[in-house]
Design brief:
The protein is of the alpha/beta class and 168 residues long. It is 52% helix and 13% strand. The chain has helices spanning 2-12, 15-21, 24-37, 55-59, 64-74, 103-106, 111-126, 130-148, and strands at 44-50, 85-91, 96-101, 166-167. The protein has a four-stranded mixed beta sheet, sandwiched between helices. Helix 3 runs parallel beside helix 8 (130-148) and helix 7 runs antiparallel to helix 8. The longest helix has 19 residues, at 130-148.
């Protein structure tokens, strides 16, 4: 019975729910924040907001983390020169938050730090402050990338991934 309820819940949510949660203005501000962040370090940040899981994930009762890892690959976050891409993933149907960091950054940051960051985001989302929660997460990831992958004086960071949040 739980699987059926989960499937119904995910089918209830669709892309329009995602765009109601984060309107065009919010998406543009988050994009600008990612662009600005990436001028200060050698990392790449990607946001992914999905209303619900695809049916294939629901049939096999997959966890949101599995989908976040798949999107990490699909959006090519793993494919950065310094292996320091970070995916911030939000699944609206389950209010699930996942952060997936490539191995270059993951070796510097303890899992407890990522858990604390997702807890902060969760508190903002419970208050229906989605844009502020994502903006705070971008700031936190920006700080980690500045610490571990700073830009050398006089260099730039070639933009390897789109800065626009992926919304589905």
């Amino acid at each position: 019975m739980n699987r059926l309820l989960r499937i119904l819940k995910h089918r209830w949510y669709d892309e329009t729910d995602a765009f109601r949660t984060l309107d065009e203005g919010a998406l543009t501000r988050l994009q600008t924040q990612v662009q600005s962040s990436e001028t200060r370090h050698r990392g790449e940040i990607r946001l992914c907001i999905e209303a619900g899981l695809p049916l294939s994930y629901l049939w096999r009762d997959a966890a949101p983390r599995e989908r976040a890892l798949a999107m990490f690959g699909k959006l090519r976050v793993w494919d950065t020169e310094h292996n320091n891409g970070v995916l911030i993933y939000l699944l609206l149907a389950e209010h699930a938050i996942e952060i997936v960091a490539d191995r270059g950054l993951a070796r510097h940051v303890l899992p407890e730090h990522w858990r604390a960051l997702t807890q902060d985001m969760s508190a903002a989302f419970k208050a229906r402050r989605f844009e502020q929660g994502l903006a705070a997460a971008i700031d936190a990831v920006d700080g980690l990338l500045n610490q571990h992958f700073p830009l050398a004086a006089g260099t730039g960071n070639p933009n390897e991934l789109p800065d626009r949040p992926y919304v589905r």
